[in-house]
UniProtKB/TrEMBL annotation:
This is XK-related protein. The chain crosses the membrane at residues 22-47, 59-80, 100-117, 185-206, 486-506, 512-531, 543-561, 567-589, 601-623. The lineage of its organism: Eukaryota, Metazoa, Ecdysozoa, Arthropoda, Hexapoda. Residues 327-347, 377-402, 440-463 are annotated as: Disordered. It comes from Anopheles quadriannulatus (Mosquito). The keyword Oxidoreductase does not apply.
Length: 636
């Protein structure tokens, strides 16, 4: 299994290198999340201090509570999970160490989050220094993707700290219409902006999590044992399309038709050894009939560049006919220069002796037709090489036209019965209350008979076809590439800006109507979730669905439940939120009493951010949405 399995391998359809995958998928997002976390936590702490200084302890305690709320919920979730505790029952050293670690993480949760981000950044950089497919690269990627409870804290921070903190600080900024303390206002604006970005980051990462989870993605906060067990189960029970095509569902040794096919092939054409021996017998010629072969020897001086440059051929400007006329003596009398011993056979050089020998050999070969006819025998297929009989009729008669075998009609009959059997099975499965005896193939004379299927009865002929069988598939979703995540992130930033400003300004003018709107939206989301799961989930899931409906007040993400009709969910949710925002905007803009230019600016900002968010979502869905990933379920 590839260490980067599940990581996008291309950007805008163009394949990228593995180092680019690591940088775009791990290094850059982690650095961005680390910077956001540092700025957001620091700004919230400074806001708390400023509220205490300004004589507003209520807002200060609210802000401080929201800072600690994700860590407390994460601690309760981890401690209440039996799989995270040591296996031994009772309070021993391992149990005490586990409880102490969780309490320490709760108290010093900012340091634990910073350690998690720093660890991922270190291993991301370390993976860049190793080659593709090496053990170091696989180990570094495994360290990057390992699970940790800090990921649960980071997920909860977006909805338990960033979202309510955003609403609270916007309400404090807008309730009087004017800004009183410049230092407090600056920190509040920084906190609101970082909260927007934090929520958009988490929503982008978990947008279609359930569709990605069924094809390999795991919860980042699950235990290492759970992640390993799920990965092994997925590898054992499923296979990709490439492996399914490379490895057929029926092994050759298990298919009874394959041995018959090979047996028929060997009986007609012989085995591989017999064909090689026959070919050798045809090509072999007695040594006495063969013409003497000239050996071509290559010496070290043939590769010496200095010697080849120093030698000058005196006949370099001569034509081949001039060289034949100029040289009248036998080739053996030509002095090669020097007292060096001549190597056995011919040597590769541009000397006169070699040129003349080559020309004489070529002339002898072209003028003698007996050499070509000597190699061809009556039982060979080389008559097309003879220059005299190039257009002559072949000596061998053409092979007879094969007659149509009876097995051909048998294969068509098998295929027809297979189609009938599949059609009947489909109708029985989909159509309720069929008439009695509709698919009864009983013959009163022959008795009951079965529709023949593949591998039954008399299908022992090697010419019978082997039809593919049905395989159950799992259709999931690949992860977004870098460009897709960027566009989706921008769309959710604009969407959250529209949503938060609309709700905050509506609460400033009409608090009662605000709570009515939020309560109705919350109840509607609970009804949609219950209808989607069809009451087939466990009881403990319903408590989480209450929190999931709270998340759907601000955004929509496929988490813990898989949407059956994804388009209806997203189109309906965006249309509902736009209708709520437009209704609230019309109410407070026309009926609210305000004189500050700030509310006019908010009005235009809400309209512009809503339009940009819709455009980003449409562009992402049309061009940048990830492809489906299909896995085949193994039948064993």
């Amino acid at each position: 299994m590839d260490a980067l399995d599940g990581v996008p391998r291309s950007v805008l359809g163009y394949p990228v290198k593995t180092r680019t995958q690591i940088v775009a998928t791990f290094l850059v997002p982690v650095i961005f999340e680390l910077m956001l976390y540092i700025v957001l936590t620091t700004a919230d702490i400074l806001i708390t201090v400023e509220h205490f200084r300004n004589g507003a302890p209520t807002w200060a305690w609210f802000t401080l509570t929201l800072i600690w709320l994700p860590a407390v919920v994460c601690f309760c979730s981890i401690v209440s999970t039996p799989e995270r505790w040591p296996e031994r029952i009772g309070f021993d050293e391992r149990t005490g160490r586990f409880l102490f670690n969780q309490v320490a993480i709760l108290v010093f949760f900012p340091l634990a989050a910073l350690y998690r981000f720093s660890r991922r950044i270190f291993w991301s950089v370390e993976a860049l220094f190793h080659d593709k497919g090496s053990y170091g690269r696989a180990q570094a990627v495994a360290k990057i993707t390992e699970t940790s409870p800090c990921e649960l804290y980071h997920f909860l921070q977006a909805f338990l700290q960033a979202a309510p903190q955003m609403m609270l600080q916007l309400y404090i900024l807008l309730r009087d219409g004017t800004f009183r303390n410049y230092d407090t206002v600056t920190v509040q604006v920084i906190s609101v902006v970082c909260s927007f970005l934090t929520m958009a980051t988490i929503i982008t990462g978990y947008q279609r999590f359930e569709s990605q989870k069924i094809v390999g993605r795991c919860y980042p906060w699950s235990t290492p044992e759970q992640a390993t067990q799920r990965r092994k189960l997925l590898l054992r029970s499923t296979s990709t399309a490439v492996s399914a095509l490379a490895t057929p569902s029926i092994a050759p040794e298990a298919d009874p038709i394959v041995p018959n096919i090979m047996r028929n092939f060997y009986s007609r054409y012989g085995s591989e050894g017999e064909r090689e021996s026959t070919a050798n017998e045809r090509v072999a010629v007695p040594a006495a009939e063969q013409s003497p072969r000239k050996t071509l020897n290559v010496g070290a001086f043939n590769f010496d560049r200095q010697q080849s440059k120093a030698h000058q051929d005196p006949y370099v400007n001569f034509t081949d006919d001039d060289k034949l006329q100029e040289f009248s003596g036998p080739p053996d009398t030509v002095d090669r220069g020097g007292s060096k011993a001549r190597p056995s056979g011919r040597s590769v050089s541009f000397k006169l002796r070699d040129t003349v020998e080559e020309l004489q050999a070529m002339d002898h070969y072209l003028r003698s037709a007996e050499d070509v006819r000597g190699y061809a025998t009556d039982d060979s297929d080389d008559e097309y090489l003879k220059p005299d009989g190039f257009d002559a009729v072949p000596k061998r008669p053409a092979p007879p036209t094969p007659e149509a075998a009876a097995g051909m009609f048998h294969r068509v009959s098998v295929f027809r019965h297979m189609l009938l059997f599949n059609a009947e099975a489909f109708i029985k499965e989909k159509v309720p209350r069929l008439p009695e005896g509709m698919f009864d193939h009983t013959n009163p004379k022959e008795g009951s008979r079965k529709v023949p299927t593949q591998g039954t009865g008399d299908q022992t002929d090697g010419d019978a076809i082997s039809l593919p069988s049905r395989r159950q598939t799992i259709v999931g979703l690949e992860q977004d590439d870098m460009v897709g995540k960027a566009v989706l992130f921008l769309g959710w930033v604009m969407f959250l800006l529209m949503r938060m400003l609309a709700l905050s300004t509506f609460y400033v003018f009409f608090p009662l109507y605000f709570w009515m709107l939020v309560a109705n939206h919350y109840l509607l989301m609970i009804a949609c979730i219950v209808y989607e799961v069809r009451l087939h989930e466990k009881l403990e899931r319903y408590f989480f669905y209450l929190f999931l409906a709270y998340m759907y007040v601000f955004s929509l993400l496929e988490f813990k439940i898989r949407f059956v009709h994804v388009r209806w969910w997203y189109v309906g949710y965006i249309a509902l939120v736009l209708a709520e925002n437009v209704a609230s905007l019309v109410l407070w803009y026309n009926l609210g009493a305000f004189e500050s230019w700030w509310f006019y600016f908010l009005h235009h900002t809400i309209v512009a951010s809503g339009s940009l968010s819709v455009l980003c979502f449409l562009f992402y869905y049309a061009f940048l949405r990830p492809k489906d990933r299909v896995l085949f379920v193994n039948e064993d």
